[in-house]
Amino acid sequence: MTSPEEKTNNDQEERLCYTALENRSQELTAYIEAIGQLALVSVADRGGRILQVNAKFCEVCGYNEQELIGQDHRILNSGTHPKEFFDEMWATIERGDIWHQEICNRSKNGQLYWVDSTIVPLKGSDGRIDRYLSVSVDITARRQKEMVLRKRLKEITCLYAIRRRMEQELPMDEICQRIITHLTGAMQFPEIATAVIELDGRRFASENYSQDLAHGLQAQIVVNGKICGRLQVFYREDRPFLLPAEQGLVEAITDDLGKWLERMQAEAARKENETLIWRQANFDSLTNLPNRHMFHDRLEQAMKKSDRTGLPLALLLFDLDHFKQINDTYGHAMGDLLLQEAALRLGSCARESGTVARLGGDEFIVILGELDDPDTVERITQDALRKLAEPFRLKNEVAYVSTSIGIAFYPADATDPSVLLKSADQAMYAAKSQGRNRYSYFTSAMQQAAQVRMRLVNDLRGALADNELLVYYQPIVEFSTGAVHKAEALVRWQHPTRGLIGPAEFIPIAEDTGMIVDIGDWVFREAARQAALWRASHHATFQISVNRSPVQFHSEVSIHSAWFDHLQKLGLPGQSIVVEITEGLLLDTDAAVTDQLLAFRDAGMQVSLDDFGTGYSALAYLKKFDIDYLKIDRSFVHNLSPSSNDMALCEAIIVMAHKLGLKVIAEGVETAQQRDLLAAAGCDYGQGYLFSEPLPAKQFEALLQTTRQSI
Asked: For the stretch 195-220, what's the b/e string if a residue is b when 16 or more beta carbons lie within 10 angstroms of its beta carbon?
């Protein structure tokens, strides 16, 4: 049992030891901080666990202090040196000696870096080594320069030997002998008694060296007993040969040979640059597939071959469905990963049968030549549809897309390359219009439709300036009262030769060409002017709904602020206009979309979600952007009956909307039964031919007068 005196002595010894350790730790810390601006400093215990590091150490290796403390030192150099390298290091410092060497480490991001390191063993109060202090200097830049110099020297010497062999077709033995001659002559050995190669203590004459040399070994040339140069053993076409291996060669060669080597290096660099330029001009940098330029070249070659063989070729144009949503949701970097994977999948479908190229964006094309089997196109098309519909794993995300494919044949569909491509493009758009994730063959009817569309595009460009566009208004009826205090503005085109054209025919064209921005702005201004008139003559709270295309939201021309100014000039509050948008727009994460929706809210303008139930939208977005109205799509109203599934869906939408504080408008109301069922379900408003078709402003005004008298 320990006596009180012994216990007191033990406590005093422990306090003294603790104080000594603390003082020692403070001294180390002060030392580390003093040299921390210049060197990487660390302290490890005898087991190699890191105890302390300075800021410079963390800066170079990429780990923070918390990630390093307590870790084994091998976190930095695992796999960078052979085991014997570290065995020698530990043996040195365990003996109490200072170890100094250059070490290659691996940073947190996987990059290698070099340090010139000195490790000093530290002894404790008991005289035994218990810690190690490492002070290192970052020499990565110097090592990289050395590697570049070694690489260039090797390239020069390889070029020399290979070029000489190609030019003179000399045997390997004579190439070796000529290199020896260059070295000995340049180093001024006029009388050569012996010129042999020594390798691993063995001597080889130039005529028999190739039978017994190992790859990667280094030989030395001995002339008259003196070493005059070194050679490296290389293999080419499974035969060994020798090339100069050291800087001494460059110093030894004559001026003429030096100039020749410089020319060879410049020629190699020029050819390398030409190859790079050619590849950049002909291949897509993202997918490594042939680009549009290379595609046209290969298509012309395939068409010529088709003419010679009499066998047709097929052109398959692929466009990824809803690819923009991938970019908007996950970012362009993820979109690039998807394009790279899509390219690999297409390549696996057509690897043996044709050429796969990327035209740009999310469009790919496949050339299938010499079609002696008519089933080839169908098989590859079905295989591509299946593979591209499989999930894409993009790092930690999973994305889904499909593809629409247009198919055209040479020479049946076109004999000109550009026309053939247009034919495939028209077939692809036909596949998209049929619902996507499918393929379509080109037909002459598509060509006719394309020509009609082109004429419409040209005519539409002047329609606004020539006052050919009209705004019609369709009433929105309040079910509870039968009153009409709302209307939707719908644009029509009075074509000079074709007559009245509905929006379904020309609005997609306006969106594709960007003309929808000017047309939409004009419709808004017309609707605002009419709202001011009807608020004064019919009802003080009259509202007009104006459709706003997603293209308008993404336009570089921000006109929504000009809309607010226009309303102020007319003396109208924001509530006089309702902006109608589609469901898909709510999921668009582009700041241009969210900023405009919030700006409409702040200006007092209400927002209506059109065709609800046909797309996909998150309920959270209905509140985030303060949506005011849901419009039930006409497809749910068309077959409405008391016991139908559509009736259940309509009731569910109405209940949900009311719970969220939204009003509901039913589109496509055509019968009294539909009206009564919707009203009984609590729907707020109805719109459809039962009440009125869209009318010009004057006829709509007459309708308002009739409605007011009947209420």
From this structure: bebebeeeebebeebbeebeeeeebe
Contact 669/696 with Cβ under 8 angstroms? no
Query: For the packed helices 375-389 and 332-350, what is the interaxial angle rounded to 10 degrees?
Result: 150
Tell me which residue of 70, 35, 73, 72 sits closest to 56, measured CA to CA.
35
Residues 6 or more apart from 400 whose CB is under 8 A from it? 389, 391, 392
Q: pTM for this one?
A: 0.51
pLDDT tens by residue, 350-404: 866 688 999 999 999 999 988 888 788 988 999 999 999 999 998 888 899 999 9
Question: Tens digit of pLDDT for each residue in 293-348?
Answer: 999 999 999 999 999 999 999 999 999 998 988 888 888 899 999 999 999 999 88
**Nearest CA to 405 among 459, 349, 340, 352?**
349
With tokens 């009075």, the residue in question is 494
Which pair of structure tokens corresponds to residue 67?
């990630």
DSSP secondary structure of 229-295: EEEEEEEETTEEEEEE-SHHHHHHS-HHHHHHHHHHHHHHHHHHHHHHHHHHHHB-TTT-SB-HHHH
Which amino acid type is present at position 341?
A: E
Report the pLDDT value the prediction gives residue 259, as an integer from 0 to 100: 55
143-185 pLDDT, tens digit per residue, is 887 776 566 555 555 545 544 444 444 444 454 455 544 444 4
Q: Which two tokens stand for residue 158?
A: 């390889």
Q: Which domains does the chain have, with CATH numbers?
A: 14-138 (3.30.450.20), 144-270 (no CATH), 285-442 (3.30.70.270), 457-710 (3.20.20.450)
Which residue blocks in 136-254 are alpha helix, DSSP H? 140-168, 172-186, 247-252
